[in-house]
Design brief:
Shape: globular
Strand content: under 5%
Order of helices and strands: HHHHHHHHHHHHHHHH
Distance between the termini: 49 Å
Helix content: 55-70%
Radius of gyration: 21 Å
Structural class: mainly alpha
Oligomer: single chain
Number of domains: 1
């Protein structure tokens, strides 16, 4: 942690903050421009299309809604893994691009602010959830944004809450869940998500809390004051480039690794067991697989509905719905490199455990 602090450490004093208004204004405009373009051109139209499909919504890929390369069970494992990896990268192309560019912009904006957290871990978690809900990106694409938020000096609980809330509490995804599943099933999913955001995140943040408002914030960049708008533009451009590199140098290699690991997992995990009666061991295995697999936005809702419509036992359906999509191997890798590997492992274990508990509860439902 000392190495990380030394690498990222810089400070913006309260007295200097007022002189950053030009740079902050330019950075905010950049942030909003990136967000508005993605949300209006890509993300929300795509989500609304899935919502409008209703019970006819489908997924043709193993961990993607569509495919660019066909994958057949008769192919050798290496070929299936390679093709599934390419399909995953293509499916996440737009979302990942947004994640890297928006994450860098968020880091640039937050670096101009004197304070990025409060003294209350629960308030910090609420703040993180408020940031994450409208983002509209999956657990994979939100990971670079989370890295940017944490590097800016936001608390661990805010970062985790933003990463958990973005793929699960989005209004369109929730509307899809309520439209496709009985209320008790959606209730179990929401309960697990709220525990992750408002119990796990603040508890984990409190365990690794540092002195708040310390003299040196964990900021990846230094934003000097700008006396003119021309200087503000130049300063923002330089700060943004540094922020982007800070996120991309870790996020891009791990993205390629996650593509291969996710493809390898989905192509080797036997799925025939889902059609057998639900067992405690089976629920645990489904929970572990759901926590690991890197799937796109709303994929958890679609796959769980397809499984339910094909007669898969309700405990397995609930477990899939409660674990798939909130976390992934890519989230784990980025959180591990950004916050700590203990936090990354704890988050994965918590998601799997809560999903399994939801599955156990569903065993008593009719």
């Amino acid at each position: 942690m000392a190495t990380r602090t030394a690498a990222l450490g810089s400070a913006i004093s309260t007295g200097e903050a007022a002189s950053h208004w030009r740079t902050r204004t330019v950075a905010v405009v950049l942030l909003l421009a990136i967000g508005a373009y993605f949300w209006t051109v890509s993300r929300y139209p795509a989500l609304y299309k899935k919502y409008s499909a209703g019970t006819h919504v489908t997924a043709t890929g193993a961990i993607t809604f569509g495919t660019v390369l066909p994958v057949r069970a008769t192919m050798p494992l290496t070929q299936r893994v390679w093709r599934t990896s390419i399909n995953w990268l293509q499916a996440n192309e737009i979302g990942m691009t947004f994640g890297f560019f928006f994450g860098a912009a968020a880091l640039t904006v937050l670096a101009t602010l004197p304070r990025r957290r409060t003294r209350n871990a629960y308030v910090n978690s609420l703040l993180g959830a408020a940031v994450g809900i409208p983002l509209g990106v999956c657990a994979n694409c939100v990971a670079p944004i989370g890295r940017g938020l944490y590097a800016s000096g936001m608390s661990a609980e805010s970062t985790l809450a933003a990463m958990f809330s973005s793929p699960t509490l989005n209004v369109v995804v929730l509307a899809m869940a309520f439209a496709l599943f009985p209320l008790p099933v959606v209730g179990l999913k929401l309960a697990t998500m709220l525990v992750m955001i408002f119990v796990f995140s603040p508890v984990m943040g409190a365990r690794m809390a540092k002195p708040v408002f310390a003299a040196a914030e964990e900021c990846a960049i230094v934003v000097p004051a700008s006396a003119t708008w021309a200087e503000a533009l130049g300063t923002t451009a330089k700060s943004y480039a540094k922020s982007f590199w800070h996120i991309a140098r870790v996020g891009l290699p791990l993205m390629l690794l996650a593509a291969v690991l996710g493809a390898l997992a989905v192509e080797t995990i036997p799925q025939s067991g889902l059609h057998a009666p639900a067992t405690l061991g089976g629920i645990i295995l489904v929970a572990l697989a759901g926590t690991f697999l890197p799937v796109p936005m709303a994929f958890d809702v679609v796959i769980a509905y397809v499984a339910m419509s094909r007669g898969v036992a309700l405990p397995y359906v609930v477990t899939i719905l409660s674990t798939l999509g909130i976390y992934s191997v890519y989230s784990f890798l980025v959180v591990g490199k950004t916050i700590s590997w203990k936090v990354a492992a704890a988050a994965g274990c918590a998601v799997a455990a809560l999903g399994a508990i939801a599955g156990f509860v569903a065993m008593g439902m009719r």
